[in-house]
């Protein structure tokens, strides 16, 4: 028993003992006090009456006081009473009572015999209190028995409740309340124990980190109750996949983990992973609706010959990194940790640290790629492209850090800076030129985009019609109503809206009917194959024709040859950009380009 628990048990025992002692003493004491009061009153009354009788007898017989210890025996139907008369000197004059005398103990009370104000003697009434004493002892015995019963009840019941409460608290401290599975704390203890055993055996220990795919969709669409039901079902299915010696735990949210001790080879771990994937992929009945989720699994193995440290925290980190790799591979898969993953993780952390520093130290720059009217060859504007000269690494492609910026929550700050800088530069250009700024799908969904655009326009003084926001088709995939509302709010500022990378994998033709974009940008992957691939030509022809029919300006990206430019012109494409007409350049170089190439 732990020290706090022993202290509580001692306190409960003391309190129960005091309560039992109080009960054992209080009842007989109260009974004895009542009996004593009743007997005392009775005897005092008897003595007073006897004194009055003696006064009367004295008046009738003045020689009464000359009797010498007159003994009178008398029987009684009630309690045996002994009466005595004593003169003023204390000499007994007369005594009347049972012949056998009074049994011990005896209670006696006296009353003065007074006649005409003169004290003649005393009258005494006495009786045995043995029956009352025996009754008091009986009451005491019963009270003691009752006190013992109370002591047992007060001690055993609270201690039992205490034990149950402590057991429950210990269970809750070690288990997940929703699924009943061990939690992270007990998982770590068992993993530490399992790793300790590997040092004394030739077997291995595997840790599997699991993350449910599409769980958030179920939780958001069907509600938290359905999400809880799904998690409980997943917990049961995981339990059915493992051995009795394995440990399944819920680490939080939709994250689970499994310890597989005493592994004889990688094949055993792969077999478990396969069972789990197949079990979780089966549809789950949620009291009516059915949900289909998958699971991604990251695996780390420790033991003989694999070179991994038998450290619980490191194993969890390795398995979690492998889980990240499994999700990157397409979800619904498993991946084993490798040192290469660790190297990539270190590189990613270094990139994130440098990215935060780049934002705070102003290391970002914008490059501007000219956009030209294909028919007149005049510059109509430029697309602002983010550039980062990373210290020690040189120029870093946006493709290498934009995704990370979105993951770590930096994209909004970087996007705001790009908006401010692009507007600040564009206000110095000729008044008919526009500047195009990319808005990522993540930045579009974050709060504050409208306010950032409005602030950039207000701060720079740029006319709203000269700012063009480029959004990808990925923005249009979710939150249809909210997306259209945001597009309309941005349009209300007076800015232009362009659809970037049109046709790269998402179907957004329906959005062209719901929202009138100002420009459609044909992705460079189609332009690159013009003159080489008839399918690419057909797609470009269809997009340009649709744009012309809808009255939307078309822009072709990545034009690098005159042949591509001629084909685009023949199809009626209105605007182009690419190396054929100008590479991305600094703000100063773009200003010089306008002077040399003409801006209008």
UniProtKB/TrEMBL annotation:
Q: Which residues form the GGDEF domain?
A: 203-339
User: InterPro entries of this UniProt entry?
Assistant: Biofilm_reg_signaling, EAL_dom, EAL_sf, GGDEF_dom, Nucleotide_cyclase, Rev_trsase/Diguanyl_cyclase
Give TM segment ranges: 133-154
Keywords attached to this Swiss-Prot or TrEMBL record, sorted alphabetically, are: Membrane, Transmembrane, Transmembrane helix
The EAL domain, residue ranges = 348-598
Sorted alphabetically, which NCBIfam families does this protein's record hold?
A: GGDEF (TIGR00254)
PANTHER family recorded for this chain?
Answer: BIOFILM ARCHITECTURE MAINTENANCE PROTEIN MBAA, DIGUANYLATE CYCLASE DGCP
What is this protein's record name?
Answer: EAL domain-containing protein
Species source reads Paeniroseomonas aquatica
